[in-house]
Design brief:
alpha+beta, L,D-transpeptidase catalytic domain-like, 2 domains, eight-stranded mixed sheet, six-stranded mixed sheet, disordered N terminus
Length: about 300
């Protein structure tokens, strides 16, 4: 039996079946985008948790989650004007925490049951009560202006949350990512883990497969408990099955060392840095496709 993370993706950017509404939070730019029918309708500035540069891992860490979630409840809030709750932690968060050794088996089972129901539990050590709310993009504390001030939620200005609250329904998917983190770290938050109960010794791996600029692109992520990780991306010309590029990033830091660069293959127009940027650009579209197929959250 193996403790492996699987991800099967059959993605074509130009033939997506989009849900009507979608929220995308890009953490680096501190921006929330509201999509309707594949078109950006609104863009709002946001504040994040006071520990904004990493994905949330546990209760009280001040980090904002990354991955794809759903609006599971909407309600007024005396403290934050209006509140739209997310189903954090989801199945990815729980299974990744178990693999990383951050949960006891009893906590794992408790968190897993809540995640399956999309009902965040106060007893889960990963945290709960994460959502999108008002209260302002900036706060004044001790005479200073604070930019990221929440405990992990996404905060909007009060007039913006009132507008968004009217637009968004319960069940709307929400995608959260940081475009400036290494590609491996970003994609890891969208890999859906399948776990063997009670076993977490094996490495995990995930795979992507999608069309980009008419080329079949495949990406493979791998990580073990020693912290070793690997990102491999290659592209094939459909029909003729001709290899156009092959990149192996052995420490998955997004930068090719001289040793790594000596082993790559690339046709003109498929620079590694540009390729990583293009993958991030289509990430929200892919993620919603997975949600529509029932693989998200």
């Amino acid at each position: 039996m193996r403790n492996i993370i699987f991800l099967w993706i059959f993605f074509c950017l130009f033939s997506l079946s989009w849900a009507q509404d979608l929220l995308v939070v890009e953490k680096y730019s501190r921006t929330l985008y509201f999509y309707r029918d594949r078109t950006i309708q609104k863009a709002y500035p946001v504040a994040l948790g006071w520990n904004p540069d990493v994905p949330k891992k546990e209760k009280g860490d001040g980090a904002t989650p990354e991955g794809f979630y759903f609006i599971v409840a909407k309600r007024p809030s005396r403290k934050y004007t209006l509140f739209m709750e997310l189903n954090y932690p989801n199945l990815k968060d729980v299974n990744l925490a178990w693999w990383e050794g951050r949960l006891s088996y009893e906590d794992y089972q408790r968190c897993l049951e809540a995640a399956r129901k999309r009902e965040p539990s106060p007893s889960c050590p990963l945290g709960f009560g994460i959502g999108i709310h008002g209260g302002g993009v900036f706060k004044e504390r001790d005479g200073k202006i604070v930019k990221d001030w929440t405990y992990g939620c996404i905060a909007l200005n009060d007039q913006d949350i009132r507008e968004l609250y009217r637009l968004v329904k319960v069940g709307t998917p929400v995608i959260i990512y940081n475009a400036k983190r290494p590609l491996f770290e970003t994609l890891k938050q969208f890999v859906f883990p399948i776990q063997t109960p009670g076993i977490r010794l094996h490495p995990w791996w995930g795979e992507w497969e999608f069309l980009l600029r008419g080329v079949l692109v495949k990406a493979s992520l791998w990580e073990d408990h020693r912290g070793d990780r690997r990102l491999i991306i290659w592209g094939l010309k459909p029909g003729v099955n001709r290899l156009l590029f092959f990149y192996r990033d052995d420490n998955a830091d997004g930068v090719l060392s001289p040793w790594e660069a000596a082993r790559v293959f690339s046709a003109p127009g498929w620079d590694y840095n540009r390729l990583q940027r293009e993958i991030l650009e289509v990430l929200p579209f892919w993620a919603e496709e997975q949600i529509l197929k029932g693989r998200g959250g």
